[in-house]
Amino acid sequence: MPALGRLVAQLPASLEAAVLVVQHLAPESLGQILVDRLAKQTELVCHLGAHGQHLHAGHLYLAPADRHMLVKDGHVFITKGPRENHYRPAVDALFRSAAAVYGARTIGVVLTGMLHDGTAGLEFIKRAGGITVVQDPQEAEFSSMPESALSNVQIDHVVPLSSMGPLLQQLTQAPAPQQVAIPPDILLEAQIAERVVGSTDDVEKLGRQVPLTCPDCGGSLWEMQHGEVLRYRCHTGHAFTADSLMRVTQDSLEESMWVAVRMLEERKNLLASMSRRGEGFGSPQQEERIEELKVHINRLRQFLLNGAAGRPAEHGDMQVSS
Fold first, then answer.
1. Structural domain of residue 295, as residue ranges?
2. Per residue in 140-187, pLDDT tens?
3. CA neighbor of 168 nearest in space, from 57, 256, 88
4. What are the backbone dihedrals phi and psi of residue 296, each rounded to the nearest 5 degrees, phi first?
5. How many domains does the chain have?
6. Model pTM score
7. In a domain, 138, yes or no
């Protein structure tokens, strides 16, 4: 919110664009509180995104908690569709939707934040002829989102937050860029997000099925064959960049290993109880098995604790599209 507040404070009511904002929120968050806070920092008219709202220049729309915010026919489109990159709302979904509708008239902005949501979305905008802007990662509080975008997408402008407002005003006042044909895969994925389509046949038009399963629903995954950002999605609509999929599978593996630690602990305790009651005969072999289990448990726990210590802390991410 601090970075977002600094940006919108630079934007005048006369801005010749609608501003749509996605920030990752907990499902129980009250987005209206954030809208009220932003309204005190900017001349833009601020709204909590609602289905069917007409998009107006000089207005800001914040995605509600636990809902994707898309755009369609000049209106806000709110849906509780499948998560993308394990998020809802997801900025990739918004960026793709804007690229499908507005093409070269879309400006995608990624600010400070953790993980990778927004990277694929910026590529959607770029492929549709739009403009991409990223906060300079050297000044970002959390640099991984800007760095991810810069590593995977040809970004048009990399600027500090203090220069971003004037840049956006300049870009929106410039003559509209020449429209290009929107790639068919972007249009199809936008329709899937709107739940207009969404079958196995539709996903097969976008990529090839691979021997991986969706961590959200357990379905098969397809590897997308368009663009430079490696991406995956299942036919129900869950979508991931390769980086976010790796992150989710790492979390699942970690959870499974902790379950293994618990099961080994329970087996050790059961063997110890049997030995005390004479059921294991209290033999040296039984004691040796218990000691072996202790060694395995300690090694596995130490491995997990060392791995967890090296993980970055979670933090809310924020992204803006106008």
1. 256-301
2. 888 888 999 999 999 999 999 999 999 999 999 998 788 889 999 999
3. 57
4. -65, -40
5. 2
6. 0.78
7. yes
